[in-house]
Write a structure and sequence with these properties.
Layout (H helix, E strand, L loop, with lengths): L1 H63 L4 E12 L2 E6 L12 E3 L5 E8 L4 E5 L6 E6 L5 E6 L5 E4 L12 E4 L10 E9 L8 E6 L8 E5 L2
Antiparallel strand pairs: 1-2, 1-12, 2-5, 3-4, 3-12, 4-5, 6-7, 6-9, 7-8, 8-11, 9-10, 10-11
Length: about 220
């Protein structure tokens, strides 16, 4: 009998242990679910805060730029053999047209609309070799033409040896083409001067690199 009672005691302890483990598992699952809900809520608040900042920037842009604009989002940004494929979630039904200009809420130039379908559009980004824009150094008389250079970033061309330019200088649009004046393009990252050459070789770090897959404004030129 003692052996039987001993076995029953072991069974009871085993069952109690299983129940405890089961309860701990349930508690763990419940905590994980609560953490996921909390994480989702935090992400939602971050999104709302980001949207509020974006909307405030839009208000500032509308005050300084009287042209029409359309809100959109970039949902694809890939680099292939023929350059970048950048897709916008707005098309002709939303009023987007070829030649429209894509910028961020901080007035950073993203690119220009190159192709339009009913519900989406393709953007030619500033880093694509087919992209060109007249540009200038902020606070200086130095100006030239910015062209895309894929992974290298951007080239700032037609900068002669006598032109004043240093690493860290900010480059913006000059307003001498389809782009409005003072849109941020990038920062001077590298300067090479070769004896006997008329022009310096200037490489820019594009500012729009931080805005990939984000909200953009589409401006009418």
């Amino acid at each position: 009998m003692a052996k039987v009672f001993g076995n029953l005691s072991i069974v009871r302890k085993t069952i109690a242990s299983i129940n405890t483990t089961s309860n701990l598992t349930k508690d763990k699952i419940r905590l994980e679910e609560e953490n996921l809900k909390l994480l989702s809520r935090i992400a939602e608040l971050e999104y709302v805060q980001s949207e509020n900042v974006f909307l405030k920037n839009i208000i500032k842009i509308s005050d300084t730029n009287k042209s029409e604009f359309i809100l959109g989002n970039i949902y694809t940004w890939t680099l292939g053999p023929n350059g970048y494929t950048v897709l916008l979630n707005k098309g002709s039904r939303s009023g987007v047209a070829e030649g429209d200009i894509a910028i961020t809420g901080e007035r950073v130039l993203v690119g220009v609309v190159s192709e339009v379908q009913n519900n989406f559009s393709k953007i030619l980004p500033v880093t694509d070799p087919k992209f060109k824009a007249t540009a200038r150094i902020v606070g200086l008389d130095t100006s030239g033409i910015v062209t895309g250079a894929l992974r290298e970033g951007l080239h700032f061309e037609l900068i002669i040896q006598e032109d004043q330019i240093t690493e860290g200088d900010m480059v913006v649009t000059s307003g001498n083409d389809i782009f409005p004046d003072s849109l941020v393009i990038g920062k001077v990252n590298q300067i090479k001067s070769t004896e006997g050459q008329i022009f310096k070789e200037v490489i820019l770090e594009p500012s729009m690199a931080k805005s990939i897959l984000d909200s953009v404004l589409i401006l009418k030129p």
